[in-house]
Write a structure and sequence with these properties.
Strand content: 25-35%
Number of domains: 3
Helix content: 25-40%
Structural class: alpha+beta
CATH topology of the largest domain: Cytochrome Bc1 Complex, Chain A, domain 1
Number of strands: 26
């Protein structure tokens, strides 16, 4: 999430950098006209191989004769003086919309800014879109030694990646003469990179470290991001979801492809006509935008959770945060709503809310103002450090400020000041290429026409006394408010306050992911020792030679089947399954593997046999035996809270196999779950989570008699209950009998 000060909070360096436009706003209309001429009316030199163009419609060429009216005839010379060149937009094949704006830069140098915003592949797993996007930025192209980030650095540019479950954004700044190369390199990334497991894991470690730092040291940023994502996930849950992403999930998301439908390309390149930019960009984007990638579903950001949410601590100080949706520039109505919001909050807070706060707590409370966004929505974020006992009074004061504006509108001077502050913010937003890219992308996603809406808003702000503010004040009174309180003690018995189960403000997430691998392996051995003792002891577990079991399984579609299994640890299996009045007999004995149903016998290929045996070998006792025999080694990657249990997460150390994890209860020492993945040709890679319970004593060993299985991307969730489970060596007799039956 990107946050920045709004236009009211301008640093000294920003003032120096933007002194031209600010001065132009404060001097006479004559000087306005001179400023416009110097900065925008000079014919634009063209970069080869661009064909020369002059004054194309909508390209920011000189104004029409007279220069003091627009198509609607309402714009005055002073307004034309500081408006930037117009942007133009175009629909590319494949549903990609592109918008470009030209501007004049002295000489042929200057930076070009490109931003491609794409709907994120359809997964709400926290961190997966960012992990995919950063992996693409770090992965090398097939037959090439450079990643996208390295290639852009070689071109003298930089790349910034932002991604959430709504959209993924690649923002590039590069010397203007290299913008073609930068865009080509970005497009090639979508179908010519090699996604490798080690790159995914390296990026995952980086993102985990960054998230851990944010949760621990920047709790305000963490909680604002949580609410913008509209997720009921605490800090540990977010960390856990990101940590639990398997490389196969990233590979599957990349295979789904980024869809050009619903995507927006925004460009600002100096000394190049906007129409020319669009023509050249369409040619460059054609290999991707013109390809037949399945259209992404429309993803619109839902509103924030409304109400008061409190994350308590023992310290009697709180960070109080208010989040309000802020309108975009959509003509006179937006001018009214923006002015009303500015008159209410102001800077620091200098509006009606500030007046109320000054009466309640003289010189004690001051709010910082920031803007944040998700998808096509933009939010005003106010935050202050306050005493916990002041929180509810401040919230009541905010609503009192809104009510007072309905009863007594701000005086004309206050309205004019608020309108001017909004106008300045919009102008500065248009001057900064990065801010303009964000704004134009958001507006295009909303389907708004950039130029008329923007100019109508500015024209209305020029005449603040004529802005119809009554409806805007009423809109503020009914606006959805999200208040977040970090730290301090909430008042007892207040049912309007929702408590946040989030410990990001007292400690970081419980994790050992940054520990060295030898230390992780040593910690895993400690956990395994406890599990071995709890499950019956190492000697008994080593003595397991096989088992015979009978079970019933009920799938999520209510289909039931009964199994009778005989398994020998040498790898031989016989299974008799009764399903839908049909008997299926499966036999695996080394290279021999087949299934018999009635008189028909069908051979099983090696992958099918391996999948069947893998499920059997995931039995907790057999996993512990494989560890004792030295076949499997584990490392401790995390400690988690699951309900009232503390669970250790052990991960198999074997890069040749899909990721495999065991969850071991630290209280009882029992294996509670295993998670892995499997690839089925017809379905792709499926994530599997098997949870074990109802442990019983079987000849001195603890054996689970119930297992819940959850399978991603399929209706394969099921519940298995064992009627019997016997340990012993029965395999020879069973297989001799099965051989005679066939």
């Amino acid at each position: 999430m990107r946050q920045r000060r709004d236009g009211d909070g301008i640093s000294a360096s920003q003032c120096r950098r933007r002194s031209g436009p600010l001065l132009a706003l404060l001097i006479s209309p004559l000087l306005f006209g001179c400023y416009w001429y110097q900065n925008y009316a000079v014919p634009e030199p063209q970069l080869p191989p661009d064909p020369p163009e002059h004054g194309s419609e909508g390209d920011g060429g000189p104004p029409p004769a007279g220069g003091n009216s627009t198509e609607g005839g309402s714009m005055v010379l002073s307004e034309l003086a500081y408006l930037p060149p117009q942007a133009v937009d175009k629909q590319f094949p494949g549903g990609l919309r592109a918008v470009a704006r030209s501007f004049f830069s002295q000489g042929r140098s200057g930076a070009a800014y490109l931003q491609l915003t794409i709907p994120s592949p359809g997964s709400r797993v926290y961190g997966l879109p960012m992990l995919l996007a950063e992996t693409l930025a770090s992965a090398k192209r097939a037959g090439n030694t450079e990643s996208l980030r390295t290639a852009l650095g070689r071109l003298g540019g930089e790349l910034r990646v932002q991604a959430d479950h709504i959209s993924t954004r690649f923002s590039i700044s590069v010397p203007s003469e290299r913008w073609h190369d930068a865009l080509r390199r970005l497009v090639a990334t979508f179908d010519r990179v090699e996604i490798k497991r080690d790159v995914i894991e390296e990026v995952q470690r980086f993102l985990l470290a960054d998230l851990s730092n944010t949760l621990t040291n920047k709790p305000k940023d963490a909680i604002v991001g949580r609410f913008l994502d509209h997720r009921e996930l605490g800090s540990e849950a977010r960390y856990a979801q990101l940590q639990d992403i398997d490389p196969s999930q990233v590979e599957a998301a990349f295979a789904d492809g980024y869809a050009s439908q619903g995507s927006v390309l925004s460009m600002v390149v100096p000394n190049t006509q906007a129409q020319t930019l669009l023509r050249q960009a369409e040619i460059i984007m054609r290999p991707w935008a013109g390809s037949e990638i399945e259209a992404a579903p429309e993803q619109s950001t839902a509103g924030l959770q409304v109400g008061i949410y409190w994350a308590p601590t023992k310290i009697d100080r709180s960070t109080l945060i208010l989040m309000l949706e802020s309108p975009d520039t959509e003509g006179i109505e937006a001018a009214a709503r923006l002015t009303a919001m500015q008159a209410l909050t102001g800077r620091g807070i200098g509006g009606r809310f500030g007046e109320i706060l000054g009466q309640m707590f003289p010189h004690e409370v001051g709010f910082a103002t920031e803007m944040a966004q998700r998808g096509e929505r933009q939010y005003l974020v106010l935050s202050a450090e306050v005493a916990s006992g002041q929180v509810l009074s401040i919230i009541n004061g905010f609503n009192s400020a809104i009510a007072s504006m309905l009863d007594e509108a701000p005086h004309a001077e206050a309205i004019s000041r608020a309108a001017n502050q909004v106008r300045m913010r919009l102008l500065l937003q248009q001057e900064s290429p990065e801010d303009w890219l964000d704004w134009s992308t958001r507006m295009t996603q909303k389907g708004l026409n950039l130029e008329p809406a923007y100019r109508q808003t500015l024209a209305a702000l020029e005449r603040p006394t004529s802005i119809p503010l009554g409806a805007a004040f009423t809109s503020l009174a009914t606006a959805e408010q999200t208040w977040i309180v970090l730290g301090g003690r909430p008042p007892l018995g207040n049912e309007s306050i929702g408590l946040l189960d989030d410990n990001a403000f007292t400690r970081g997430p419980a994790s050992v992911s940054e520990a060295s691998k030898p230390l992780q392996a040593a910690l895993a051995d400690t956990v395994m020792t406890k599990a071995l003792d709890a499950m019956g002891g190492g000697n008994r577990i080593l003595g397991i030679t096989g088992y015979a079991a009978k079970s019933k399984t009920i799938g999520s579609s209510s289909i039931e089947f009964e199994d009778s299994d005989w398994y020998d640890v040498s790898g031989r299996l016989r299974r008799s399954r009764e399903i839908l009045n049909t008997s299926i007999d499966t036999r695996i004995d080394g290279p021999k593997a087949d299934e018999k149903s009635g008189d028909e016998i069908k051979g099983l290929d090696a992958s099918e046999a391996d999948r069947i045996l893998a499920k059997v070998r995931r039995h907790p006792l057999l996993l512990l035996q494989a560890y004792l025999l030295g076949k499997d080694q584990y490392r401790l990657v995390a400690m988690r809270t699951a309900g009232d249990r503390q669970v250790a997460i052990l991960e198999l150390i074997d890069r040749t196999k899909p990721r495999f994890r065991m969850h071991i209860d630290q209280g009882s020492g029992l294996v509670r779950a295993v998670e892995t993945s499997t690839e089925i040709p017809e379905l792709g890679v499926l994530q599997i989570l098997e949870s074990y319970r109802d442990y019983r004593n079987v000849t001195g060993l603890r054996v689970p008699f119930q297992c819940s299985t959850k399978t991603s991307g399929a209706s394969g969730d099921s519940e298995t209950i064992w009627q019997s489970f016997e340990l012993g060596d029965q395999a020879d007799e069973v297989f001799e009998r099965s051989e005679g039956e066939r």
